[in-house]
Predict the structure.
Amino acid sequence: MTPITEVEGRRLPLSNLDKVIHPATGTTKGELLHYYATVAEALLPHLRDRPLSFLRYPDGPDGQLFFTKNPPPGTPDWVRTAPVPRTEDPGARQVVVEDLPSLMWAANLVVEFHTPQWRAREPAVADRMVFDLDPGAPATVVECCRVALWLRERLARDGLTAYAKTSGAKGLHLYVPVEPTPSETVSAYARRLAVEAEAEHPRHVVHRMAKALRPGKVFVDHSQNAAAKTTAAPYTLRARPAPTVSTPVTWEEVEACGEPGALVFLPDDLPPRVRRYGDLLRPLVDHAGAGPVPEP
């Protein structure tokens, strides 16, 4: 029998709580739900008013993985959905997680949370810019940190402030709060900086996606600024053998990164980090220090 849990007045059926989802650590679905409930105060502001895409992995990272933008079958009527601009489906809607019951309902599906750089109230108008720094072996997160520091300084010259988090996979994400700007303008500027990074560090950086170009280099992926693209949300778990978390980090941690495992965080690491630092990405939520995007 599926247990029913009440969360802030909403009745939720939570299934298969003893099922092992992450085999490397033996982490169960119940433990994943506990993690999301514990970090909800930090996570929810990064999800609110952003139409969500889900990478679902109900049988773990070695089972079937599928990416979905449409509300899953059986979505409760109290879970908010919002219209999204899609050429192929003018009536498309996506889930927006606003509160703890919605978060726990979505987490029960076993998902990664992915968000666009714009809010539902202003589709395709970005309020932040993102760079996904992805290392091609034998490069690691150590090389990503060096590129992140270069990008931080380059952005600062244009009056923009960068914040870092781990991708939860191999690399880093840099977020930059910006004044509301059409996504295509943000995309063009981000591409320009990626090209500059490669021009200045051709042995270590590549801005093109072709895998043949990437061994030993850091791919500065600027493409996630396009209106149709999404990025793994802060604090989301990733579909990997161990339940790694996409974790906000300090610039001191980025500067000190000297080995590939230095910036790997698991669910138990996050509550003490949040108690110590608060939400390091809170300026993105508050839109603090957002600057205009220079003409590309």
